[in-house]
Design a protein that fits this description.
4-stranded parallel sheet; UDG_fam1; Uracil-DNA_glycosylase-like_sf; 222 residues; glycosidase; hydrolase; uracil DNA N-glycosylase activity; Uracil-DNA Glycosylase, subunit E; alpha/beta
Length: 222
């Protein structure tokens, strides 16, 4: 059934619903009022453009986009080339360094290669006002991303879900743990990484799961 399901078909369905129209209106109103909203309109759904539904192997769930200039481009935790690596991503690289033999910390934070390999880098909330983290959390984006998680749960087979932090772990109830592999830890934020993210070994565990079920593993060097 998954061969007949695409993100495009899902978007066409969801965009007709009241909640999605409300989100679009709220974001449009903010932009029209002169507020700086990240990511740019053309990049809000980049995660879906780069990782089609049939291609998903791993879901990494973030909260909302980076709220600093030129950072957010539609992929959770990722920044464009030549942009300073944010602290959360530095901690992700630190865990990779400890977890994956031979990993070398790159000088950039662009994670497109992960998305190309089937890692859906999904934020729960897809837009944010400049300098105001969580400012769009009340817009209704969680309704949409809950739908995304539910569709992956239903139509995809044996997906790895990396749920980092309490907000991401709220999605646990949407996932059938008998069909999929769920890994949970604290968030890689500098405020919480030492409470369980460091040492979680999620990257090697995810690859071991993929290898065990006959799927190609992820090259975690971005």
């Amino acid at each position: 059934m998954i061969s007949k399901m695409t993100w495009r078909s899902i978007f066409l369905s969801e965009k007709e619903k009241f909640y999605f129209k409300h989100i679009e209106n709220m974001v449009s109103r903010e932009r029209a009022a002169g507020k700086i909203i990240y990511p740019p309109n053309s990049a809000v759904f980049n995660a879906f453009y780069l990782t089609e539904l049939w291609k998903v192997k791993i879901v990494i769930l973030g909260q909302d986009p980076y709220s600093g200039p030129n950072q957010a481009h539609g992929l959770a935790f990722s920044v464009l080339p030549n942009i300073e690596i944010p602290r959360s991503l530095k901690n992700i690289y630190q865990e990779l360094l400890n977890d994956i033999p031979g990993f070398q910390v790159p000088s950039y934070g662009f994670l497109k290669s992960w998305a190309d390999q089937g890692v859906l880098l999904l934020n729960s909330v897809l837009t944010v006002e400049s300098g105001k983290p969580r400012s769009h959390a009340h817009f209704g984006w969680d309704i949409f991303t809950n739908k995304v998680i539910s569709i992956i749960n239903e139509y995809c087979e044996k997906i790895v879900f990396l749920l980092w932090g309490s907000h991401a772990q709220k999605k646990f109830s949407l996932i059938d743990s008998k069909r999929h592999y769920i890994l949970r830890s604290s968030h890689p934020s500098p405020f919480s990484a030492y409470r369980g993210f460091f040492g979680c070994s999620h990257f090697s565990k995810a690859n071991q799961w993929l290898n065990n079920i006959g799927k190609t593993t992820i090259d975690w060097v971005p």
